[in-house]
Amino acid sequence: MAIKITENENGTVTEKTSRQIKRESKSKLHKFQKAIGVTAVTAAMIAMSSITAFAAGGNDAPANVNTATMGTLVDIVMWIVRIAILAIGGIPGLVKIVQGQQEENPRDRNNGIVSVVIAGVTFAATFAIAALIK
What are phi and psi of 17, to 5 degrees? Predict the structure, then answer.
């Protein structure tokens, strides 16, 4: 059984078996999968909202009805979703890039780059979804 020995900043030495390392990585993977699941459910809810908006047959505002409040509400909700996307995917991705570069670990750096790209694409997609909903 492989043992990994690490030393923290304060000088404490820890030994971890390969089983402990796998358990920790599974825990991290589970947290990431949970975040992706929440994001997918949110995206599905937004998509269903846009489908219901188009179900009436048009994207025009009803006659003699002011829809400015709904547009403002959509803008607020979309900015909350954008901030969540950046907090869940963008910031940890940037941290992972810096850690990977500092530790000269290309796998961590590349994972961070992928996270930032995915967060950027989903951030940009929220603008298109907001335009569809309005």
Answer: -80, 165
